[in-house]
Amino acid sequence: MDNKDYILNELKEISTLVASIKRVNVFTVPDGYFSFLPADILVGIKAENGLDAEVLSTTESTLPTGYFDSLAGKIMQKINAVHTETATEEIRALSPMLYSLQNENVFDIPAGYFNHSTSEIVEKVRPKAKLVRLKHSSTFFKYAVAAVFTGAMAMAVFKFTGTSNNKILPNYVQAGMQINDVDGALSKISDADILKYLEETGTDVKAAIVANSIDENELPSQDDYLQDEKALDKYLNSINLDDLKN
Amino acid sequence: MTENIDDKELLEQFKQPAFKERSFTLIIKKYQEKLYWHIRRMVVNHEDANDVLQNMFIKVWNALENFREDSQLYTWLYRIATNESLSFLEKEKRKASISFSDVETGLSNKLQAEKHFDANKLEWKLQAAIQKLPEKQRVVFNLRYYDEMPYEKMSKVLDTSEGALKASYHHAVKKIEDYILNS
């Protein structure tokens, strides 16, 4: 009795049911798998050892010319190749189902989306006419300084040229020349006078009022401008300019 | 054709640098199918089997020069393949950090993912029953049932006594029978 029959009889003695089952190979293998397997294994061996094909068949005394010069680079290539494979191999090992779904994109995007998205984003981040954030009362201070400077310049010109005819100089210069306490004089100037002055000189009164009268911490931030192009409009609408005037 | 090449001759050629790669290729061709199917029946999935088989042959390449030929090449290769399969399954278990019973569920799922799987066919029920066996018992059953390996050789592959192997095979067959009858 040969081995095959012996094993079959042994099985029949333990279980006739199991012995009756056809001995069929239910697993399948990709076409040509065994034809390519030896070469694949040799590639794996070379990768593992960081060696080239010709090196496997040579002895130490007959190494290819320049072998050690290029060895480090080749090993790094293999290492990087292994690392590249690792993530894919990892997901395949962890979950064959997830591996098979890796490239399945279930989300739709509008046609031509990526053609336009760059320009849309650039448009959103481009700063619009933004409100200049100045320190509290910096505009007023600027105009006050400008007025004082103008007066001082006028006085200097007057003194330098020796012109003493008050009738030639503008009224405000004449008035400025009379002032000894500039700070005190400035504090007595009313808001109405300032407004009148600004309007006469073509200044955007609303912008000046907002810049003077609000807390810069309440202004929209840079991120707000980026996320909402209407940030400034919304903020201005929330401010009652009439209240600020008063 | 490659089956007719003597193992002793292949081992001799392997030790000569000029013929190392060629002889190793012949060894692979001679044993690849037997070893592949042995591994495949353990790990179920083709990709996993391919990985285990390739890792196994890389180890053989590194160790073959020192192979003492106390046992036959065929037995030695089977032992490495078995150990690599069991190590793979152990790694899978550790990766998932789950209990042994859940590893069986994972293998059952892989089985059901196989092409042409048909839970109603007896041969697929047999496979499902085999996957339910403890790992070492599964190895014994596969080596005896599919590879028709004599207990004497199996004893060298698994480093277990023939008596223990016979008992293990007997228990495995009974469990398979119960599974099929109750499924």
Q: How does this model look, in words?
A:
- The complex is a heterodimer of chains A (246) and B (183).
- Chain A is an all-alpha fold and 246 residues long.
- Chain A has two domains: 98 residues, no CATH class; 82 residues, no CATH class.
- Chain A is built from 15 helices and no strands.
- In chain A, helix 8 crosses helix 9.
- Chain A is rod-shaped, with a radius of gyration of 44 Å.
- Chain B is globular, with a radius of gyration of 18 Å.
- The relative contact order of chain B is 0.10.
- Chains A and B meet through helix 1, helix 3 and helix 5 of A and helix 2, helix 3, helix 4, helix 6 and helix 9 of B.
Annotation keywords:
heterodimer; A: 246 residues; mainly alpha; 2 domains; 15 helices; rod-shaped; B: 183 residues; Rna Polymerase Sigma Factor, Chain: A; Arc Repressor Mutant, subunit A; 9 helices; 0% strand
Supply the number of helical segments of chain A.
15
> How big a fraction of the residues of chain B is strand?
under 5%
Radius of gyration of chain B: 18 Å
| Largest interface by Cβ-Cβ < 8 Å | A-B, 38 and 54 residues
Number of domains of chain B: 2
- CATH architecture heading of the largest domain in chain B: Orthogonal Bundle
What is the terminal-to-terminal distance of chain A? 117 Å
- Class computed from helices, strands and strand pairing of chain A: mainly alpha
- CATH-derived topology of the largest domain in chain B: Rna Polymerase Sigma Factor, Chain: A
Order of SSEs of chain A: HHHHHHHHHHHHHHH
Mean pLDDT across residues of chain A? 69
